[in-house]
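The records we work with from here on pair a chain with its fold. Here is one such record, which you should read through line by line:
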Amino acid sequence: MTADLVRLEGVHTHIGQYHILQGVDLVVPEGELTVLLGRNGAGKTTCLRTIMGLWQPSAGRLTWRGREIGGWATPDIARLGIAYVPESMGIFADLTVAENMVLAARAGRPDPRRLDWIFGFFPALRKFWDFPAGVLSGGQKQMLSIARAVIEPRDLILVDEPTKGIAPAIIEAMIGAFRELKRGGTTILLVEQNFRFAASLGDGVAVMDDGRIVHAGRMADLAADAALQTRLLGLSLDQHQ
């Protein structure tokens, strides 16, 4: 039996006057890659940011290995071994690639073996190691954002739409990196609009609509059911290029 790493039970999140999450029930099993799908504005990013403590839940229960963490500050949540890759990438454009990576390493200096492992998936980071991160292409910035999150082993990585606007070759490198992370025991919660990418990686899947989880199950089952895809997402995987 796979243990639950993160569990949301009836979680509500308000941002100002807006009620974004409206009773989310979500389980993220340890050691798996769970994909969070849904139309734009469904609440997927808010769900990640609530887990990370960037936005606070207004009701419900949020637990990490059975321990309540709802309302914790983001640095305390990060110290549990959780990293977040935002859609905005969150890199420091005026700092070099090397400086970005050093800042992400809690020990203050990246492990050379870990760096070599990262360079194996994202060789451009080695090439531009001493360049300001702001000169990187969009795909290279996304590489850096993911690399910063995994510069040290993490128990959970929250990733928000990593393939948005990214070239196919870089997407293939991401697939390899995420698969290797899973093999190493890292749990991943991935928000993604590229359904083919999601289906190639996902163990489990949850679909959000209007601030709630409207479907949860195995990704293989959703990938095999075009009618269910169309009902939940408005477009089947076979139609989506």
Remarks:
- The two ends are 35 Å apart (CA to CA).
- The longest strand covers residues 4-15.
- Residues 1-81+155-241 form a domain with the Rossmann fold fold (CATH 3.40.50.300).
- Residues 11 and 60 are 4 Å apart (CA to CA).
